[in-house]
Amino acid sequence: MKRFLLLFIPVAALVFVLASADGGKKQRTPKTVEELGEKLFFDPILSEKKTISCASCHKPEFAFADNVEFSFGTDSQRTTRNTPSAMNLGGHEPFFLDGRAATLEAQALGPIANPVEMNLPVDSAIARLNRHPQYAKLFRKLFHEPANAANLGKALAAFERTLNTSDTPFDRYMAGDSSAMSASAIRGRQVFNNKGKCFDCHKGVDFSLDEFKNIGLYNDVELNDPGRSEFTKNNADAGKFKVPGLRNVAVTGPYMHNGMFKTLRDVIIYYNTPGDFVTGSIGTDTLVRPLNLTPQEINDLEAFLNALTDDQFTKPKNNR
Predict the structure, then answer these.
(1) Which residues, at least 6 apart from 45, have a Cβ–Cβ distance to it below 8 Å?
(2) Sorting pLDDT into bands at 50, 70 and 90, what band is 20?
(3) Nearest C-alpha neighbor of 206 from the set 175, 247, 169, 244
């Protein structure tokens, strides 16, 4: 089984040659905790049958998200929520769409033990790593102790914190390059900040509020995902999910917790005319009033959202 190739270089420039399991090219030995986390992220050793890795669902070419509604876990089981991007996560606590992980370290361990994802109890994963000659040596060298739940989480989280992007048309425009964004994207920025009301929830350097919102996709009569209330046990949180960041959003579709919208335009159309969709029956935040955007404003808003995509995902490989 071929391992996933890390096609895009994170800011920390951590790059492994990920070999095939039958030998292939020699892998570089990790010298830092971040590099150890990267190696683990791409290694199926952390799954029950050693068939999938973190990168099986968090695919580099899709900004470490997935390109399907629900990802495939162990034994081809489908996940119950759409896989979000693992990029630009630092400082955006809490984690998961329902906020059940207080730290990135806790989040990193969650999919390993999840029965429909990697389905390997963390204790079993630790025992497996400590029996592995290379990993046992690496953990002792880098952490001065055997592998355990705490340092496994630290290694994976350290790698995830390197997955930051800031080389977008928008970033260059904000740095003073007036030609970096198209005229349509520049107009779209105004729609985003004003009439489109996107800025009400998508703020800051990564366009994330780090709060939880019910945007009208939850219906308590049907068997919908209850969202944050499943974790908090508070009915007021029913149908609420964490507001995601928007960096690289053009390559992380499909969208929403259930992947119901295939394209960015579908998302914009939903917010523009929410009444045309089957929306939730309780607890909807004030986010689903019609925006009354014109066709041109819809085009411009879409152009701006595309301008939030890092060049590594849009330029041909030979130009990177």
Answers:
(1) 125, 128, 129, 132, 135
(2) very low
(3) 247
Distance CA 106, CA 99 (A): 11
Pair 257, 214: CB distance under 8 Å: no
Enter the pTM of the model.
Answer: 0.88
Q: Calculate what percentage of the chain has a pLDDT beyond 70.
A: 85
Per the CB < 8 A criterion, the answer to whether 20 and 14 are in contact is no
Decide: 211 and 243 in contact? Cβ < 8 Å: yes
Give the side-chain half-sphere CA count within 13 A for 123: 0
> Considering the chain, what is the average pLDDT of its residues?
88
CA quadruple 146, 151, 155, 160: dihedral, nearest 10: 160
Reduced 3-state DSSP string for the chain: CCCCCCCCCCCCCCCCCCCCCCCCCCCCCCCCHHHHHHHHHCCHHHCCCCCCCHHHHCEHHHCCECCCCCCECHHHCECCCCCCCCCCCCCCCCECCCCCECCHHHHHHHHHHCCCCCCCCHHHHHHHHHHCHHHHHHHHHHHCCCCCHHHHHHHHHHHHCCCCCCCCHHHHHHCCCCCCCCHHHHHHHHHHHCCCCHHHCCCCCCCCCCCEECCCCCCCCCCCCCECHHHHCCHHHCCEEECCCCCCHHHCCCECCCCCECCHHHHHHHHHCHHHCCCCCCCCCCCCCCCCCCHHHHHHHHHHHHCCCCHHHCCCHHHC
CB 210 within 8 A of CB 99: no
**Rounded-to-integer distance, Cα 306 and Cα 300, Å:** 10
Please return the burial class of 221, using the count of CB atoms within 10 Å of its CB with bins 0-12, 13-18 and 19+: exposed
Q: Which is nearest to 111 in space by CA: 168, 157, 161? A: 157
